[in-house]
Amino acid sequence: MVTANQSIETAEPTNIIIFGATGDLTKRKLIPALVRMIDCGLVHEDSRIIGIIRSQSHDEWLQLIRDGLNEYSPRVALDNDKWQVFASRMKSVRGDLSEQKTYDDIGAALEVLGEKKNAMFYCAIPPAWYGRVATGLSNSGLISEQEGYRRLVIEKPFGMDLASAHALNLELLSVCNEKQIYRIDHYLGKESVQNLLVYRFANSIMEPLWNRNYIDSVQISAAETIGIEYRAGYYEKSGALRDMIQSHLMQVMTLVAMEPPVEFTADAVRDEKMKVLRAIHRFEADDVDKLTVAAQYAAGAIGEEAVPAYVREEGVSPDSSTETFAAVRFEIDNWRWEGVPFILWSGKRMQKKVSEVIIRFRKPPFNLFDSHASVPHANSLVFRLQPDGGVALKLNAKKPGLTTDNEPLVMRAPYANDEEGVADAYEVLMHDVLIGDETLFSRSDEVEESWALVEPILQVWKKRVSVDRYRSGTWEVPDMDTLCDDCVGGWHLPN
Ligand code: BG6
Q1: How far apart are CA 216 and CA 361, in angstroms?
Q2: Last residue of a domain, one of 131, 155, 179
């Protein structure tokens, strides 16, 4: 992340190796991000992009990438001349990831760029391959940093539970050191999420209010309108708790709840996030029913379009009890937050796509205007993460007229109106990898701690044979009102 005292830094020339070079992530996110990054000088133009491909020829791969750009990122589509320049930086290595020869061939394809042989290895492949790839690279001598830096990028999920996350960490750490591993959580690359840190730590009005004396409750949400799309295989095993809460939303929670770090460096920030995770109250099996909600989408409509129930999606078992909506009510046992619930929730096929952090303040201690007026609303501060990032402060104001009746007044400050100027999360995060800044990446201990926190929930939920339903395109999730009923204002529905 580019901090206040840094100018935007062009990364050193690097060999950017993409495993999974023909896959969706590469086409939809990585290549468009790289095109923009080269364009605006974040990636050194002497860098090389090396795709690891299996069966295609080099030209077929280039065509696939070009078609992907036109289809998914018309905004960055290149004219013929620009494409030729971009394509001249692309190389490919054909091979099978299970064969050591492939890694030897990758080694032979790495170029000395500038004076070094820097390499970023991006694993845009299923997580089951991460360990094999890391070992393959190590066996071919590609992890050692003698000739330049060597960094390994992996995408969530980092394991499916505590045991598998721990095993993955051990496997990776047996060949790389922690500083070489970049675990991407794309939520942390969102401008509006980083802006949370700036709102918190660059405004002196926040800190005095940022605690249990003034804050009643915090809700962190990610509502989506999409279903599971083509990912039944993954989602059936994952569900919303693993897919969104254990990863993205818990990361956001740590940024909201952490103490000010002593400096803005990767380990100082991550140490503070880790302290939050360690202070979260552990669930007992008996707490799970009371403090969590799981539900699954039934048929309904998103806007005008009728959509099927989850159990009718291709690849989903008709009696699946996988949750597509999950909510967890955490409590943080420390001086700042004791008694303040943090409710994290996320659902697919909801009425609207909105991600927010809602800080609800306590009610005024008494109502001075009681004899004439309506009861004042509790104040709230809403950080809209997407779409239309920004912040809104809800106050009470006098209704115009002869009484002192009040009505809510919402002061909105849009943050990212200029969509063109806002970097995509992948641009931010890949640039951070290239300049070696790990602030926005999860450390192994954070990953394991967050799994340990959700583990008791996973254990209870996996024994359930049925799950509640909500109609697609609505907010009608059973039990959410109960989960939030003692929070000022109840469950916050996006508007
Ligand atoms: C991914 C999840 O990590 O995040 C998806 O696997 C989800 O299921 C996506 O749709 C949401 O990301 P965003 O940026 O659209 O909020």
Answers
A1: 5
A2: 155
What was the pLDDT predicted at 377? 83
Domain count, the chain: 2
Q: What is the CATH number of the domain that holds 79?
A: 3.40.50.720
Which pLDDT does position 5 carry in this prediction? Answer: 41
Give the model confidence (pLDDT) of 387-436 as tens digits.
Answer: 988 999 999 998 888 888 888 899 998 876 555 556 688 999 999 999 99
| Ligand 1 centroid to residue 354 C-alpha, Å | 12
Same structural domain, 292 and 437: yes
Kindly state whether residue 489 falls inside one of the protein's structural domains.
Answer: no
Ligand 1: residue of 25, 248, 388 to mutate (most ligand atoms within 8 A of CB) is 248
Beta bridge partners of 215: 361
Biggest CA-to-CA distance, the chain: 83
**Structure pTM?**
0.94
Q: Whose CA is nearest to atom 8 of ligand 1?
A: 243
The three-class DSSP label of residue 274 is helix
